[in-house]
Amino acid sequence: MRFKDVFSIIGPAMVGPSSSHTAGAARIGRAARQVLGEMPRSAEVIFFGSFAATYRGHGTDRAIAGGLLNFCTDDHRLPDSIELAGEAGMEISFRQGAGLFPHPNTVQLRLAGKDSGSELALTGISIGGGNIEIVDIDGFGVKLSGMYPTVLIHHMDYLGVLASVTAVMRKGQFNIGHMSLDRKNRSGAALTVLELDESATPELLRDLGALPAVKSVKLVDLNDDKGKGRTP
Asked: Matching CATH topology for 19-138 and 150-220?
């Protein structure tokens, strides 16, 4: 069993009035940026529930924009992030959503990459104290907390794929703290999410990407502060 540290309980260092509506939102935006793998050219942000009712007053829109620029929760640029996103060439829009949503603090992001044009649809929820859960990535049901370094593996749902993945993890001596998997259909596209006890190395990502059934490998590490103080 893994225990939360005291900082995850009392909330993160942050700029903004609310750990749920500001810090959590920034972490969702930053997770989406890392899943996309590049700065978005365009971002449609759809708020649900409490997020939809209060996002302007609580700065949730600016927090999401800052996360998409790879800003950490305590980055001094967060209050100016919407303007900075525009200066960086990101077209970003915000609106209220309707219909069912998994949590009062829910946001859906629809992104297109600036360089590759790759598209991403991601749904995240802010569960309090700056903590988040990513619950959907491109139609795959997932569970990604952002508390630990996380590897996302897009692959085909073939027999033996998970055995090959765990063999690579064992060879590199990486321990899996939590794993979730969803697939479109039998023998179709699948997404495996691995939360690790330590940060993934470039060698691990390379070896996972070399597996025959694997289409792509992405790393989400919200504990890495490399976005702090840097331009988008």
From this structure: no
Among candidate residues 114, 102, 99, 108, the one with its CA nearest the CA of residue 64 = 108
Structure tokens at 81: 């992030």
pLDDT (tens digit, 9 = 90+) per residue, 114-166?
A: 999 899 999 999 998 889 999 999 999 999 999 999 999 999 999 999 999 99
Vertex 35: Cα angle to 31 and 38 (nearest 5): 100
- Please spell the DSSP secondary structure of 113-163, one letter per residue: ESSS--EEEEEEEEEETTEEEEEEETTEEEEE-SSS-EEEEEEE--TTHHH
Domain ranges of the chain: 19-138, 150-220
Q: Return the CATH number of the domain spanning residue range 150-220.
A: 3.30.70.260
What is the homologous superfamily of the domain 19-138 according to CATH? D-3-phosphoglycerate dehydrogenase; domain 3 (3.30.1330.90)
Global pTM reads 0.87
